[in-house]
Write a structure and sequence with these properties.
Layout (H helix, E strand, L loop, with lengths): L1 H9 L11 H19 L4 H22 L13 H16 L7 H21 L4 H7 L3 H29 L1
Length: 167
């Protein structure tokens, strides 16, 4: 029972078993889930943060159990790390500035976050590559995507600062 739950958890209900670009599909699903939570269900951001934190903490256990008897410690079917990494810039966008976000504006921003996150997750520039290469366990699997999420945040902050000087 727990093995099946862990499998469904780390593969985001089987999305990780998609043969073509499972990480991209998981990231896209995350964007949709967060859009629904923030703009359709209007959930409190603290509730969403609690959910993301629970998923983050449990993912270490689930990934460890899922990869316990296999040699490859970062198989492509594990996509819960995409959920965590993709959630970081979107969540921070939604709670930033304390202003009400219009759904149309959010869709554009979510799309930018999606593209940037996929870029950092696929290309793995430093420091994302550090976690990917240094740690061949659940910590490395999850933290490289967390780092990619924070790279998206840093990129957007740099863009906003430059934009404020130019415009």
């Amino acid at each position: 029972m727990i093995k099946t739950f862990n499998f469904l958890f780390v593969t985001m209900l089987g999305l990780g078993k998609v043969k073509f670009m499972p990480g991209t599909f998981a990231s896209l699903a995350t964007v949709l889930i967060l859009y629904i939570c923030f703009h359709i269900l209007n959930l409190n951001s603290n509730v969403i943060l609690l959910g993301i934190l629970i998923i983050f903490i449990y993912s270490f256990i689930a990934v460890t159990n899922h990869t316990k008897n296999i040699e490859n410690k970062d198989p492509g079917e594990i996509v819960i790390d995409e959920f965590i990494g993709q959630s970081i810039p979107i969540f921070l966008y939604e709670v930033s500035h304390g202003t009400v976000k219009e759904p149309n504006e959010a869709i554009i921003f979510y799309g930018v976050c999606f593209i940037l996150f996929r870029y950092f997750d696929i290309v793995k520039p430093f420091p994302v590559s550090y976690f990917d290469k240094k740690y061949k366990n659940s910590f490395g699997v999850i933290m490289d995507d967390v780092c990619a999420g924070f790279c998206v945040v840093l990129s957007l902050i740099c863009f906003m600062v430059l934009k404020s000087y130019i415009l």
